[in-house]
Amino acid sequence: MDKQEENKNEEVKKISIEIEDAIVVKDLAAKMEIRVTDLIAELMKNKIFATLNEKIDFETAVIVGDDLGFEIVRKKSDLERNRYLLKSKTLGKGAKKRPPVVVVMGHVDHGKTTLLDKILSTNVAAGEHGGITQNVSSYQVKKKGEVITFMDTPGHEAFHSMRERGAYITDLAVIVVAADDGVKPQTKEAVAFAKSAGLPIIVAINKIDKPESNVELVKKELSDIDLMPEEWGGKTVCVNISAKTGEGIDNLLDMIILYSDMEELKAEYGSFAEGFIIESHLNPKVGPIATVLIQNGTLSEGDFVAAGILSGRIKIMKNFLGEEIEDATPSMPITILGLSEVPRSGMVLKAYPTRSAAEAAALAFKERTTSTLGEGKVLSVSRIQEMAENGKLKKLNLVIKADTKGSLEAIVQILDTIKVSGVAIQILKTGVGDITESDVKMAQSSDARVIGFNNSADANAKRIGEKENIAFKFFNIIYEMVTYVKGELSDMLDAETVRTDLGKMKVIAIFKLPRKSAKVVDMIFGAKIEHGKVEKNAKLEIMRDGEKVGEGILTELQHNKKTVGELKSGNNAGVTFKGDILVEEGDDIVAYKEEKVKRIVK
Questions:
Q1: Residue 443 in 3-state DSSP?
Q2: Which whole number is the average pLDDT over 247-255?
């Protein structure tokens, strides 16, 4: 091929196709404008057996897309799109100041929860701290007449997606760093999330009351990750605090209020409300419940609303203290009851003047989008059997139920990162709420493990589980659940053969040759052990002129006409050899052993 042809080929660009985190096979074929059978055939070439109505993930779509000449790119997430839409919206003349929304992030042991508890116990805007419901992850405090909304995000690394959600719907990030421990990997991760969301950062250097604290060292580590403290000539505000004693917390709140004043955060109060679904779950007694952060407008009891493909009417609203309220204004975190189903976290909730308008908005959303991560995923039992028959890959089948969609998203995301040759995780069904009879029957039919997170099993599920001897595994910490899953995967893995080289020897004499009619070479030779050691029953590789020519086993080892178990470097040995080749004087012999070792998923 000449240079002209090469340049011509380089100019040909692949057709770009935009998809979300997952896509149904037939929908991807439609986007590619190819036959579904052609796409399924391409998937099968990559050992992926999916029907036209099943979803494949983004990474799989990228692989087959590249093979077919397409560039698959990821759509901006709902959070990114929604944040852009709400932040960029032109506000009317009646826009007024709104409270800042602050996300608190940091390493798991650096005092984030203690800091929030201390702030709340002394600065809660209404009611007593003890009245705060445990299911609400956002709170409001009042300082010098100014309201601040705090959003708590889980500290453990397993809550990657939930922490990212917190970063995308707030105005300011407070990164908590312990003065006695410094910047840790989770600290860097939190900073990266905040920067990716375009959030200003205030660093709260905690635990300054401890004798081993070293504030200057922490500032040095902060400067190493491009957070140069103001007093060092940078732009990052650092506040020294003690969440335990309360020292410095007033100063931290003052800095947040100062930021709010400088940014002139505003919102409309008289328009129809817009906000984010930041959490959701199913309450068996009252129905779907969602936690919403109002971004613009005022949401009132009785308003008609839509969130993604769902619609409904606000029946009950409660503030973060669990008190019923009639109106919710910008930056206020609330829980609502009235949507038709459990909404997906990260969706925009909007109010409409009529029920028909809300329903029309939900229908329009459904027509232009495809539901992906967090929605219930079910594979038929026949499909499961088909997948098992089509390959030797062992699969750990899981049925997973969680208390909220946020938790479910985090669980699915973490499990998706576990990649081990020879075994795979197959999530047959996911859902929000308690484990039910249908979940147990699915597990029974497909030999699946049933996992619950922050929930329980209903009476029928327990009854069937006990009758059929199906155990449920319940967790309230995600990394403990992940440890359990990795243990189950480890038990499915075949043992791995591990070779250990023992030593090397050179053949110096042939003592006994095999009979010519023998099918297996059985001979005795003398050798000089040059390094390492050799031992009885060791496996032997015969090397001649630098190449392997045969192999066998050392069946007996002698030294000075005495049988021994092993000999080390520098000794002469009499070797009884059984193998597949006639050993010659001058051959190099490598002695080694092989062991079966259980593989562990880490």
A1: helix
A2: 94
CB of 415 closer than 8 Å to CB of 427:
yes
Burial class, 128, CB count within 10 angstroms (exposed 0-12 / middle 13-18 / buried 19+): exposed
* 530 CA to centre of own chain: 51
Contact partners, residue 575, CB within 8 Å, separation at least 6: 505, 524, 525, 526, 527, 534, 554, 556, 557, 558, 589
Tell me how far apart the 2 most distant CA atoms of the chain are, in Å. Answer: 105
Superfamily of domain 381-492: Translation initiation factor IF- 2, domain 3 (3.40.50.10050)
Residue-wise pLDDT for 298-352, tens only, equals 999 999 999 988 999 999 999 988 899 999 999 999 999 999 888 877 788 999 9
How high is the mean pLDDT of the chain?
A: 82
Does the CA dihedral 160-163-168-169 come out positive or negative?
A: positive
Q: What counts of helices (H) and strands (E) characterise the chain?
A: 16, 32
CATH superfamily of 99-264: P-loop containing nucleotide triphosphate hydrolases (3.40.50.300)
Task: Write the pLDDT tens digit of every residue in 360-377.
Answer: 988 888 776 543 333 444
pLDDT at position 8 over 50: no
Q: What is the rounded CA–CA span in Å between residue 31 and residue 210? A: 60
CA separation, residue 180 to residues 40, 142, 203, 213, 248 (Å): 56, 30, 15, 4, 17
User: Are 377 and 55 spatial neighbours (Cβ–Cβ below 8 Å)?
Assistant: yes
Query: Is residue 435 scored above 80 in pLDDT?
Result: yes
What mean pLDDT comes out for the span 217-238? 93
Helix (H) or strand (E) segment spanning residue 572: strand 572-579
* Range scoring the smallest mean pLDDT among 141-155, 267-281, 462-476, 546-560: 141-155
Angstrom distance (rounded) from CA 199 to CA 201: 6
Question: What SS3 state is found at 411?
Answer: helix
If one counts every other C-beta atom within 10 angstroms of the C-beta of residue 342, the result is 24
Q: Which residues, at least 6 apart from 324, have a Cβ–Cβ distance to it below 8 Å?
A: 316, 317, 318
Beta carbons of 590 and 504 less than 8 angstroms apart: yes
pTM (two decimals): 0.56
- Would you say residue 272 has pLDDT above 70? yes
Which is it for strands 172-178 and 472-475: parallel, antiparallel or unpaired? Answer: unpaired
CATH T-level assignment (fold) for domain 274-311+335-367: Elongation Factor Tu (Ef-tu); domain 3 (2.40.30)
